[in-house]
Design goal:
74 residues; alpha+beta; four-stranded antiparallel sheet; 18% strand
Length: 74
């Protein structure tokens, strides 16, 4: 994947594909993070929120939470 992509469209959080055998990486402000650690944390928040939305729809409305988590050195 040569294209530059972002975590759920959140432009400051870069998505880095590491191949089929490795977890993707996220890059934010020069630091890297495991994709699934952030996604799992946000999914837990989504389940607790119990909205009538899909996870993707919820992320569109609450993407700022991903930045907040990374800002707090997740």
């Amino acid at each position: 994947m040569a294209d530059k992509k972002y975590f759920y469209g959140i432009e400051p959080i870069e998505f880095i594909w590491n191949g089929v055998w490795n977890d993707p990486t996220l890059k934010y402000k020069g630091k890297t993070y495991n994709y699934y650690m952030l996604e799992d944390t946000l999914f837990d928040m989504y389940v607790d929120d119990n909205p009538n939305l899909t996870f993707v729809e919820w992320m569109e409305l609450n993407g700022y939470l991903a930045i907040e988590i990374l800002e707090n050195n997740f």
